[in-house]
Amino acid sequence: MTDLRIPACLLTAAVLAFSLPAAAKEIVVQMKNQGADGSMVFEPSFVKAAPGDTIRFKPTDASHNAETMANMLPAGVTPMKGGMNKEAVLTVGKSGLYGIKCMPHYSMGMVALVQVGKVTPADIAAARAVKMPPFAAKRMTAALAKVK
Ligand SMILES: [Cu+2]
């Protein structure tokens, strides 16, 4: 009869594999002319990510781009600027709040917020203090309310 016992070393390896941090995720955000929150939107407009995750901004509709906001980006992070009608890829390393905007539709409120890891009350206060056009401010305020 065949011995079906699993060698102890393999069991140990399996236990270790499950106790490691979750593998980096890939999160898709669509750039759309019309979405659940109205016209000219990132969908979803709030993303919660972990350090190491990648966020892909897809040009679902034409005439959009995705870029980080210079005044809402953790210190030391390299800004990201996606081209028009191009997928933009943001791999996040540092914890904090990353503001994203579509340049042509910023004044129409086309903004998104990426929370990476844990953020402090000071991070949230700093993000709330960032000045932006009224429609952008309205959506950013709604996104900031989802930070936790
Ligand atoms: Cu746009």
UniProtKB/TrEMBL annotation:
This is Pseudoazurin. The lineage of its organism: Bacteria, Pseudomonadati, Pseudomonadota, Alphaproteobacteria, Sphingomonadales. It holds the Pfam family Copper-bind. One of its GO terms (molecular function) is electron transfer activity. InterPro entries: Amicyanin/Pseudoazurin (IPR002386), BlueCu_1 (IPR000923), Copper_blue_Plastocyanin (IPR001235), Cupredoxin (IPR008972), Pseudoazurin (IPR012745). Residues 1-24 form the signal peptide. Its cofactor is Cu cation. Cu cation binds at H64, C102, H105, M110. Keywords: Copper, Electron transport, Metal-binding, Periplasm, Signal, Transport. It is found in: Periplasm. GO terms for cellular component: periplasmic space. Gene3D superfamilies: Cupredoxins - blue copper proteins (2.60.40.420). Binds 1 copper ion per subunit. It comes from Sphingobium cupriresistens LL01. Residues 29-116 form the Blue (type 1) copper domain.
